[in-house]
Amino acid sequence: MREINWEEAFCGEGNSCFRLGTDSQGNGYIAKQGEEGAYLTDTREALQQMIRDIKAGKADHLL
After folding, report:
1. What does pTM read for this prediction?
2. I want to staple 21 with a disulfide (CB 3.0 to 4.6 A). Which of 6, 26, 31, 38 is the partner?
3. Mapping DSSP to helix (H, G, I), strand (E, B) and coil, where does residue 51 land?
């Protein structure tokens, strides 16, 4: 079982709450608050780049 260190939830508008986490192997995790067992994982660098791209508007066409 992985030991994931979850940060406090980040909540947007409404009930859109997400949590970010890391493990000792350098992996990053994203999950909906309350559903931490169903997470998205990749290297920390890959998830950091995904977050930067979202902030830059590269995923706005999905909205």
Report:
1. 0.76
2. 6
3. helix
